[in-house]
Amino acid sequence: MRLVRDTSQMAVDLISLLALCALCAPVLSSAMPYRSQQYNPLEQSWSNRNLCSVPAELDLRLKTLDLSSNSIEQLNVLNLESLEKLDISYNHLNFIEKEAFKYLIHLDYMNLAMNLLDSNDISNGIRSKGNRAEISNISLPSLLHLNLHSNEIEYLPTVLFDSLPKLETLILRQNDVKLCDGKANSSNST
Question: Per-residue DSSP letters for 7-75?
Answer without folding.
Answer: HHHHHHHHHHHHHHHHHHHHHHHHHS--TTSPP-TTEEE-TTS--SSPPSS--TT-SEEE--SS---EE
